[in-house]
Inverse folding.
C-alpha cells in the first residue's frame, strides 16, 4: 500500500533537495543559469524552465515551496548564510524572485494579447482616473479570481502608470518592467499590491 504523503514527507523531500544541491554545487552554476535561477548575460526569462507556464501556477499555494528552493539555491551558490538578506542577493545577481517572475510573465501576456482585454473607457463613458485601466469582469469565486485572465488584469492595473503608458512600445515596456521588478524584488502579492507607486529613475 502506498504511504500517504503528508507534511512530514514534504519536509523530507525539501531536505533531500537541499542535500542534492550541496552535493552538485560544482556543476550548479551552469544548471542554475539554464533554469534562470541565476543569470548570465542577457538571459531571456520567458524561455527559462522556472518560468515555464508560470502564469498558470505562479499564484498558487505550492509555488511557495519552489520559491524556498530558489532562495536556498541562491544562498548556496553565493556561499551566503541563512542570516544574509536573500532579497539583496536577488538584486545583486539581477534575478527576479519567483513572484516577480510571475508579474513579469503575466504582464507580457497582457501586452501580447491585447485583443482579449478591454479598458474601462471602452465599457462605460464615466471619466475617472482609472478610465485607461483594464476592465475586470465581475467575479466572486476565488477560483475564478486566481485564474489567468482575472489575475492578469489585477496585476497589470497595479503597475506604475509610467510603465503602462508605454505598453504599445513592447521593447521599452519590457525593459522598464524588468527594471521596476529588479528594484523592488517582490516576494509575494501582498508586497506587490501594497507598494508605493513612483516613477522609476534611470
Amino acid at each position: 500500500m502506498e504511504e500517504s504523503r503528508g507534511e512530514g514527507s514534504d519536509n523530507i523531500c525539501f531536505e533531500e533537495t537541499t542535500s542534492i544541491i550541496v552535493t552538485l554545487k560544482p556543476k550548479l552554476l551552469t544548471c542554475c543559469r539554464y533554469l534562470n535561477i541565476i543569470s548570465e548575460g542577457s538571459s531571456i526569462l520567458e524561455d527559462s524552465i522556472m518560468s515555464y507556464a508560470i502564469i498558470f501556477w505562479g499564484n498558487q499555494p505550492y509555488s511557495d515551496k519552489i520559491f524556498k528552493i530558489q532562495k536556498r539555491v541562491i544562498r548556496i551558490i553565493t556561499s551566503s548564510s541563512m542570516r544574509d538578506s536573500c532579497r539583496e542577493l536577488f538584486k545583486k545577481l539581477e534575478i527576479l524572485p519567483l513572484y516577480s517572475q510571475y508579474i513579469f510573465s503575466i504582464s507580457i501576456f497582457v501586452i501580447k494579447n491585447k485583443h482579449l482585454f478591454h479598458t474601462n473607457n471602452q465599457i462605460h463613458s464615466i471619466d475617472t482616473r482609472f478610465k485607461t485601466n483594464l476592465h475586470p469582469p465581475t467575479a466572486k469565486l476565488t477560483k475564478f479570481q486566481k485564474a489567468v485572465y482575472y489575475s492578469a488584469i489585477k496585476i497589470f492595473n497595479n503597475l506604475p502608470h509610467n510603465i503602462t503608458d508605454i505598453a504599445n512600445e513592447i521593447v521599452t515596456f519590457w525593459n522598464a518592467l524588468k527594471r521596476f521588478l529588479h528594484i523592488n524584488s517582490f516576494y509575494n502579492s501582498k508586497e506587490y499590491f501594497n507598494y508605493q507607486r513612483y516613477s522609476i529613475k534611470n
